[in-house]
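Annual report, structural modelling task.

Input specification for the protoporphyrin IX containing FE complex:
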Amino acid sequence: MDVQPFGYLPTLWRLARDPIGCFRWVDRRYGRTALFRRPGRRGKLLLVTSDPDWIREVVTDDGYRNSTLALAGPSGSAQRRIRRSLFRLHGEEHRRERRLMLPALQKRTADAHRDTMAGIVDETLASWRVGERRDLEREMKDLTRRIAAATLFGESDLAASEAAGRSIEHWIQLNYRNRTRILQLDIPGTPYAEMLALAQELEASLLEMIRRRRSESARGPDLLSAIVRAVDAEGGISERNLVGQSVVMFLAAHETTAYALVWTLFLLSQHPELAVRLSHELRNTLGGAPPKDNEVALLGHVIQESLRLFPVVPYTVRVAMRPARLPGLDVPRHTRILIPFDVAHRRAESFPRPQVFAPERWQSLEPPPYTYMPFGAGLHMCVGASFATRTLEIVLSMLLQRFQPVPAAGARIDRRVTVTIAPRRGLPMTLLEAGRPFERAPVRGDVHDMVDLSGGGE
Ligand code: HEM
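The model returned the following structure:
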């Protein structure tokens, strides 16, 4: 495999501006696997691949590590401890902690939280009115923050759970801010100092929650209690390490689920016939209630197709921690590997007419391994996939039995990609009554790169 001369800087520049645009450009220009070298005599390699065989090699080999963006913080600091999570672990330690956490996140646990989730959705929808305009991005983020807080940290102390959720969100925002990253000095008044102080507060309040769960009386059905029970039975994660795992679970669950909801609602608004059919099927089958299981197959297919066109985590990164070998390539240590799920999801050989939103394709489709990865793949595949899918089914089925959100005609919808794909300026939508025929409102913006909205799909 040859290094593409002069490709490194243009790729990096595009990556900083728009990762999705960057990966599509690399794919068009260089093909499904491309290799670049950072300028300089001993410049490190950068590999971009959406080839299923290469992806398998990388994501199933523990020699390639995940890299996360949370700042390291001074040694011995709470900041350093709370960024420790499944994402960052590897080898035996990763396997052990993942095994302890997985049972708490199975579909049956999500089912046990069905009433909690349904209660929160009901409460949210109770204030919605037909004809109103609402920013669906804000609404869905508020909703999934509440769901994540209640299911992860418990309902008995909902206010404290939600406060913890908000602090976690604020902490991660501080981690991402350019001003925090540029000036990493613990001087009062700087965002960096604020971030370190917040990490300390967060650690203390989560430790308190964990300790309360250790005392028998405070054990509830929440995920944190379930994990504490597993840890108490088998050992293997210290209290402090559980703090990091709780923080990351909240972060991994909250925004991803919100954006999956946002984009699914947007796609339905652009496919009126399908949206009306789905709403009728939901009402006829569920009669206003949340689903007990996946009773409406069409809803499942809509979710699968939405996550194909809008994989809310559109790419992942690995770094080779030791020299490795890929087909036709010696991979030196520190080589950075970018895996664009978004590009893999648009191969015509796996998904005919790839840009078209066609949920019915999932009636018979079984994509080959490593071609459809909305929840990642391999050693670090999402532990919350079943839980997330169940949450999406519950929220969407309740919402779509009552409302059909539609954007204003001519609205501009662009993407903003960080770890997730978000609408750049929110997603204001008007609420129509569910199940009534409506006209598609044409929209503008680079959302048209994500899906073909010319009408061929209906
Ligand atoms: C629609 C919602 C979700 C999407 C699209 C999603 C996507 C992903 C993806 C792509 C990865 C792999 C990242 C990589 O390989 O670098 C991942 C990992 C992870 N996800 Fe999710 N996720 C979702 C919901 C959740 C939920 C609800 C939870 C927890 C309750 C969760 C917890 C995690 C954790 C802890 C990992 C790291 C696993 C490991 O490193 O072993 N996610 N997720």
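The CA atoms of residues 232 and 353 lie 51 Å apart.
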